[in-house]
Amino acid sequence: MLTFNNLVKHRGTQEILSGISFKARPGRVTGFLGPNGAGKSSTLRILLGLDRATSGNALIDGKPFAELHNPLTTVGAALDGSGAHRMRTGRAHLLWMAHAAGLSRSRVEEVLDIVGLTNAAGKRVGKYSLGMGRRLGMAAALLGDPKILVLDEPVNGLDPEGIRWIRTFLRERAASGNTVLLSSHLMGELAETVDDVVIIHHGKIVADGTLEEVIGNHSTLEEAFFALTSGLAGDVV
Amino acid sequence: MSFPSSKKITRILGAELDKLVTLPSIWLTLTGTFILNLLLAAAFTSVGLQGAAGTQSILNIGLASMRYLQAGFIILGILATCSEYTGGQIRSTLTTIPWRGVQLSTKHFALAIITIPAAFIMAASGVLYTFTMMRDTAVVIEIDTMIKTLLGTTGYLTCTTLLSAAIGALFRRTTPALVVLLGYYFVVSPLTRDFPPRIRKFFPDTAGYYMYLPPSSVKLNFLTPMQGAGISMLWTLIFITVAIVLFRKRDA
After folding, report:
1. Which region among A188-202, B21-35, B48-62 has the lowest average model confidence (pLDDT)?
2. pLDDT in tens, A100-153
3. Which residues of chain B neighbour A60 with C-beta distances below 8 Å?
4. How many other CB atoms sit within 10 Å of the CB of residue B84?
5. Is the minimum CB–CB distance between B24 and chain A shorter than 8 Å?
6. For position A113, what pLDDT does the model report?
7. How many alpha carbons lie under 13 Å from residue A104 in its C-beta half-sphere?
């Protein structure tokens, strides 16, 4: 379970997150939806201990990220890009991560196979396409076979086959009791994948509920999103 | 924050070593520095061979390239920490190793593990080349003096590398860190040569210089090798501590 409690983040004089509170539950895919700059990545970065909240907290099974016994086997995270140095090979990147978490070399080969990067694993990351970089990020997230996945814009740069693969994969993860939180600004994609939806706009949560609850009387998630974010930023569903 | 166990710290150290040895720019820097050092040693030896026979020390000539050699180790230190900020690797690092103080400390330790043998080999290769070329004409130094001087050189280059890594961690970007460090070692420091020695001896590079100064010039020394090592290590520890404190406070 991921719990966000009244997160506030100031950057300079600007308040980029204003009291963010929601939960991502086990067995469900939670979509974190919002336009670019709404505060999705900042929220996820605080959850993963990369940034500090000005106030409030974000907890993983009741603990801050830095207090997890072995973070890689608890939470798999894929943020923007590959998260790897461009001069290092994809395999070398995963190997140092596996080494730090006490995982075997064979697990590295397994995740390379899962994301379809086995043949490109010996290439330098700088030579990867955008989609291959995303796949490497996914491989890193899956390395510790975690119960929780946190993915920031996971379908960016993926081809249709990759998008379909990730959709099926995330559904399967949730079906086996895992927690999946993914952010996106692609509403069509999200509607196909998620059980619950949280909508953020200008650093505030404007909707939080099941996909059906958030869509409400609107015909699609996209319509609901625009209705919720066009001047109604205070009303939470 | 929970503190990782010693087993976990050993794994983190292994991962930091993996990172360093799988980065091609680290090997390029070390190889380039080694070759450049040998070329410089050859040039200084050639000049030495044209000088007065029997009055020159093999150590003085073999280590004459130190001023330039340290540039390679400054680059090595900066690359070790600034490479974290290329391709968003720092995110992978901190989601795998969220204990920031431990992570940056072990990175410095891993860097020292690589730097110590590299520095010794490079310093020794310069001296060895000079010894081979000048053994008939120059003043030969006793073996224990030579080893002490080479150990001092290794210590100085290691401190310089670790200090550079700490500065790299503070700036997080290669170019500004390079400008500041090369600017200090190659512009600011030479410009302060006229400063009184009682002040200058506390500068990191000057204190480090006393770590490997051959004993023939001891009477001119203002610090013993041990005092030089102490001051040099103190500077290094101060910068590493500042880097760790800021690293723990800042957003990644």
Report:
1. B48-62
2. 999 999 999 999 999 999 999 999 999 999 999 999 999 999 999 999 999 999
3. none
4. 23
5. yes
6. 97
7. 4
pLDDT at B120: 96
What is the count of structural domains for chain B? 1
- pLDDT of the residue at A233: 45
Measure in Å the smallest separation between the Cα of B239 and chain A Cα atoms: 23
Q: Does B92 touch chain A (CB under 8 A)?
A: yes
ipTM above 0.95, yes or no: no
Domain holding B196, by residue range, is 6-249
Q: Is the pLDDT of residue B49 over 90?
A: no
| A116 touching chain B per CB within 8 A | no
For B141-172, give the DSSP string: PPHHHHHHHHHHHHHHHHHHHHHHHHHHHHH-
Would residue B155 count as lying in a domain?
Answer: yes
Determine, yes or no, domain membership for B20: yes
Structural domain includes residue B1 = no
- CA dist., res. B57 & res. A53, Å (int): 61
The reply to whether B86 touches chain A by the CB within 8 Å rule is: yes
**What pLDDT, on a 0 to 100 scale, did the predictor assign at position B219?**
53
B60 within domain boundaries: yes
Nearest CA of chain B to the CA of A43: how many Å?
13
